[in-house]
Amino acid sequence: MKVTFPHMGNAWIVIQTLFESLNVEVVVPPLNSKRTLQLGTRLSPESACLPMKLNLGNYIEAVKEGADTIVITGGIGPCRFGYYGEVERQILRDAGYAYDMVTLEPPDGSLLGLAGRIRYLAGAKNSWGKILKTLRFAYLKSVALDRVEDLIHAARPRLPDPRETEKLYEDAKVRIAQTMTELGVKETVRWVQESIRERQPVLNTYERVSNPLRIGIIGEIYTILDPYTSVGIEEELGRLGAEVDRSIYLSGWIGNHVFQGLAPGYRSIRSYPDYAKPYLPHFVGGHGQETVGAAVKFAQEGFDGIIQIFPLSCMPEIVAASVLPRVQEAYKVPIMTLIVDEHTGHAGIQTRLEAFVDLLERKNIEPRSEQKRGEVLGFGGR
To answer: Do residue 202 and residue 213 come from a single domain?
Structure first.
């Protein structure tokens, strides 16, 4: 067995750690790119979601490295993601790719079925004790990755050299991917914090934003977490002088859907349905309700603007988008919606982001309230 999986942002680091710790041979496909999307689009139905097209491209690229088994999570509810496993299996089979597809449904589907598939992937040589220990360690890596991302979100609009900030981020990801001890994971997060603090004295000699705009990113999970799919909006907003926070982090999703809230992750998502109730009181599939709840939460926390991003034809996010104008009116917070597909270009997104940031800067005449998040992240009073 040689396992591969679809990319979704930094999830590959967690998944690679999980399989390698269990001595299961794993193929990490190349990071999402234009070529990945082109390969997947050739096999996909025209109306398929952008994530599905990238998934198929991942599998085609991984097969060249000898991968023969695909692992993908499942879903329950109206979102089409729940059909990905079976649909992709049939598409790949018809195209001549002899893949074995293993779909890991969330525990609220069939706990016994999930356990059986995990046992199949891990093999008889690994005890349940080792499997659980490995799951815990991989989860700790996902929390550390989210903490690092949050530190970088706060650092981007404040540190003087964007290239140096991105290099710090990439180096941190490499360190977390390579370390196989809890101490190594913790030391990497500490190293990022210290590296940012070391650069703080330089701030006095540059005209950088000391109290930047705050923009919340909401929407469909894949589009939020995968920088290729989102056309790098987090990095772009940071360069425009805005501090970004997002509604969903990887460990928060794992903690809620895999560990059923027993491990909430770096940023739990369990409170979003409560925030959404006045506007969208019921589940609509995917992360639609969470999108609305996150928008309300960001608005109540005084964020200057909110951006919703999702793939073309994503039904749960379309429902959420129809509700967000009510949130915008209630809290007087600008909300912009970005819809992406295989034709989306960086230049068009960049132009819209520049216009949105310009709008927020002109709107934001009164001083913003002091923000505690920057203090926590080591940037002093705001």
So the answer is: no
